[in-house]
Amino acid sequence: MLRQRLLTALVLVPLVLWATLALPGAWFGLLLALLVALGAWEWGGFAQLDRRVPRLAYAAVVLVGIGLVAVGMQAAPPVREAVLVLGLLWWLLSLQWIARFPSVNRLLIGRSGRLVSGVIILVVAWVAVFSLHASPLYGPHFVIFLLALVWAADSAAYFAGRRWGSRRLAPAVSPGKTWEGVWGAVVATALLAGLAAIWYGLPAAGVFGFVLLCEVTVAFSIVGDLVESLFKRMAGVKDSGGLLPGHGGVLDRVDSLTAAAPVFLLGLWLMRIPA
Q1: Residue-range definition of the domain harbouring residue 74
Q2: Alpha-carbon distance 35 to 25, whole Å?
Q3: Assessment of whether the complete model's pTM goes beyond 0.85
Q4: Alpha helix segments (H runs only) across 110-178
Q5: Which of 144, 118, 119, 121 is nearest to 28 (CA)?
Q6: Taken in order 184, 148, 256, 51, is the CA torsion positive or negative?
Q7: What are phi and psi of 239, to 5 degrees?
Q8: Quick one: three-class SS letters along 71-112?
Q9: Which DSSP letter does residue 248 get?
Q10: How many folded domains does the chain comprise?
Q11: Could you report the per-residue pLDDT of 169-227, keeping only the tens digit for each?
């Protein structure tokens, strides 16, 4: 499995880097919307949409949501901030779902709650990544850094958990994740964030703030991973799909990013980084 994961990554990573750095904003947004639509197709499985037409309809609803928000952002820039804050509030609410699982089933209101949750998660993620990419202050290189941060956290957590893991993080939701894995992710991403802050030429106070923001982002990336695991357990599936050999589906690769992206962008704005 590890070999298959690495081979898939060797193909995907260069493509992602090229698309992020080479595509202009509009084309990047369209490609990102396509990936979100694939994620919406997979999310339909979490809500037991077993037939093709309902899943396509659900993906279309998510794309319409993205289109409406994109138009709204053009007409009134505060729409972007409002959507990101909504996403942050949703992720904070999801913490209690993780803590209370499996009794959380009643809170999600069955299929309707799962479908609404998917729309919020996917639309907010698109807004965050697209806005970061389009920002004249940040741009594609900050998108690459965010991806590297999430990937580093995921990889460090995996290897630290396998080597030292003993205390389960959320056994009812994802038995394989451990506190030792979390601390491995914290250490690895702190080093990465510190190096990036120096590379960006941030002042000493800015370095501390940037590293702190990155650690908060990593914490939410873990929440994103756990929330997808929660929905998969409710649906009785191991992976969101089988599109990516060794990785599962699209959602299995971007679950951490969906939570990390809005937190990272809001943090950059609130902390005025770089400053």
Answers
A1: 2-271
A2: 15
A3: yes
A4: 110-134, 140-164
A5: 144
A6: negative
A7: -125, 160
A8: HHHHHCCHHHHHHHHHHHHHHHHHHHHHHHCCHHHHCCCHHH
A9: B
A10: 1
A11: 999 999 999 999 999 999 999 999 999 999 988 888 889 999 999 999 999 999 999 99
